[in-house]
Request: fold
Amino acid sequence: MFSLLDIIRPKSPIRILDLGAMYVEGHEPSYGPLVAAGVCEVLGFEPNEDECARLNSMYADSGRRRFLPYAVGDGTAKEFRVCRMRSRSSLYEPNSRLCEKFNAFQEGSEVVERRAVQTVRLDDLPEVDDVDYIKMDVQGAECDVIAGGGRAAAAAAVAEIEVEFVEQYLGQPLFSDLDLQIRHHGYMFHTFLGYGTRALKPIVVDGDPLAGLRQWLWADAVYLKHIDSFDRLPPEKLIKLAIIMHEVYGSYDFAHHALAHHDDKCGGDLSRRYISAF
Reply:
């Protein structure tokens, strides 16, 4: 597939918020193609200070990726649980009673350290200016982040959020709660990017404890501003939306829809040139 960036490039960098930015070997973030193309700036948040320092060291030469050691949430004091599997660490208590029912799940959720933290609201951070794209993986605290980040949610065109379908953490909001909350900010659900699963003990699928059957536990959900609101998006936001949908998600129909609205606002023939490139 051709690159939309061969037809048009954004006038300013695509501004990405990466919440829960811990690096996992072999798992590049979805926005990786935008980083590789040099068309974005990433502001990441990772409450584990050692991991945050490692991320800043890893990407020190890029000049386009910066990470802050904040626990983003609703602005209240919380306890941060550091889990044996660092990527499972959370502001919420792991639900051991449920997790232990699944293969290879409870082990990584064991709390090995507890820290008192003051969470910060996105809307209170001067570093958070205009936002185009939100990526969030905060292990149960998604609704807290959005509650404290209404300005960022209103500004962004696309959001990719890890959601849970069962209560992996005690008292956490689930996908249905997040879906209702983010739709209040003008988003529509677009797609899931795969899903996480496990089998209930003692069943082991094909000898693989990480394999599952039908139970979804988590997934990455992609949202974008509702297509009925495209005519209200600024022209540059439409360009960035089209680039994200084309380069990151392969959603060529939505990319074209954004370009068509840009043409309606500004004139030009971007949507025609886009169709002609197929």
Notes: DSSP finds ten helices and nine strands in the chain.
